[in-house]
């Protein structure tokens, strides 16, 4: 008995000594850590994925915005899950530097600096003076072709940033945007800027970013499909095309542009006058054709008739059609005019339904004619 008693005393004292006089605490091993952090990261990613669904993102934008800040703990947990590898550290460093660069390049405009032009009841044009800010202009040309910026109006919502394509204006010292009231935010924005000119609002504007349709100049023939205010990014493309054709050293192989504009607001027609006059002044009329498909109500046809009297419709390369286009027939009519082995670039800018339709039909046309032509598609939804 004494031996057993002594043995038990010895074991207890050893346990006490090993824990410094206290009770031992359970330790989490590496496999348990991997399991817990893996599950936590998966749950956070699922929440962000759920709020990214189109119906939720459009109706509850603030929910989408706030829940996506969960990416910060998700990244931290993922780094722990991967045992803090060098790969993750480098990736986070690049991400943080990019976010910092975007943040410091933001420009602020007061209502006194913003020029507002009311084009129609649902469309306005705003001009922003080009502020010299080295950090935001570094490495970027002044060319607006294929460029877009994000705009925030804190008076409406400090959380919402909306992307708009840059277009060319009459004054090169201003960046111009054409904004149509296509959603809740844009309706509030247009009402604020057009009706309440004395309001003390301000705008936050990001640095310009480049869209993929800026590569349309790499093709031989370009078909530009635009819907409504989607004409705004087409104007810089037309102007740049005219500029390249008149320079001694051509930087692209683009021969001709075919513009297909689906528009229900006749007040927007005048936006094409300046780029067309630019082509005429350089004797480049044959380098562009314009077909406008008017899809507005019959009540507004009187307004269309008034606009038809403008110099725009006196040009032989401009035509007006009172119907919606069949894009497959439009592609066929344009492309089959040219010899085979031509590179065809199709750009579609407009509503999501228009860009998806243009993309689907261009792929169908390309499959059926892949031996004759190479078709490249570029899109951007308003």
Automatic annotation (TrEMBL):
Residues 27-79 form the Ferric oxidoreductase domain. It is a multi-pass membrane protein. It holds the Pfam family FAD_binding_8. GO terms for cellular component: plasma membrane. Residues 112-204 form the FAD-binding domain. InterPro entries: Cyt_b245_heavy_chain, FAD-bd_8, Fe3_Rdtase_TM_dom, Fe_red_NAD-bd_6, FNR_nucleotide-bd, RBOH/FRE. It is found in: Membrane. The chain crosses the membrane at residues 33-50, 70-95. One of its GO terms (biological process) is monoatomic ion transport. SUPFAM superfamilies: Ferredoxin reductase-like, C-terminal NADP-linked domain (SSF52343). One of its GO terms (molecular function) is oxidoreductase activity. PANTHER family: NADPH OXIDASE (PTHR11972). Keywords: Electron transport, Ion transport, Membrane, Oxidoreductase, Transmembrane, Transmembrane helix, Transport. This is FAD-binding FR-type domain-containing protein. Residues 223-361 form the Ferric reductase NAD binding domain.
